[in-house]
Design brief:
The protein is mostly helical. Helices cover 82% and strands 0% of the residues.
Length: 199
């Protein structure tokens, strides 16, 4: 019985480890110099894209529960933390490897490059959510305040997808699909929230 339960409901730490496993793959490729002609851009873009994929998966958990009656709520936190891990790695590659910790160049980029301005804004919205993604913070803030804080995920994911669209500089299909998916999922959540308040 215990074995069956383990197979159907893996521990949260397993979900987190699986979710961040692509980072190990790209690290191995970076170490062995197998990231193509522009390894820095490949690594930076791949980490950012995986962050978006995991954010989409996290947003899909509630629709899956409502439509398919599959309760995956307990996995939303590890998936969200895995997404933030990729965001942090994406930012680290830019700050440390791309700009080599040159704070002045980074500041100029933030001011003059809209996609970086938007990306930094998304990161700053995700940061307090990552810090408070634990039971202690829920108790300290109170459940209602904690839920309000974590609604920052909605503008953050849309800004993250917009960051990807602007990064490409031309209208590429894949970034637009990410942005469309983010907007659609956020819209669905907002419609359900309004219906819940009315009832």
């Amino acid at each position: 019985m215990a074995q069956s339960k383990l197979l159907t409901a893996p521990p949260k730490w397993v979900i987190y480890c699986v979710a961040i496993s692509p980072a190990a793959y790209y690290l191995e490729r970076a170490i062995t110099n197998n990231l193509g002609p522009d390894p820095l851009a490949t690594l930076e873009n791949a980490l950012g894209e995986w962050a978006l994929i995991l954010l989409i998966i996290g947003l899909m958990i509630t629709p899956i529960m409502r439509f398919a009656r599959i309760n995956l709520i307990k996995y939303r936190r590890p998936i969200g933390l895995a997404a933030f891990t990729f965001v942090l790695l994406h930012l680290t590659v830019y700050v440390v490897l791309d700009r080599q910790l040159n704070l002045w160049e980074i500041w100029i980029d933030i001011l003059k490059r809209p996609y970086i301005t938007i990306g930094v804004a998304a990161f700053l919205m995700l940061l307090p959510m990552a810090i408070t993604s634990n039971n202690r913070s829920i108790r300290k803030l109170g459940a209602e305040s904690w839920r309000k804080l974590h609604k920052l995920v909605y503008p953050a994911v849309i800004l993250g997808a917009a960051h990807y669209v602007l990064l490409e500089k031309t209208w590429q299909l894949e970034p637009i699909l990410y942005l469309t998916a983010m907007i659609g999922l956020v819209a669905i959540r907002q419609v359900w929230a309004r219906r819940k308040r009315k009832t």
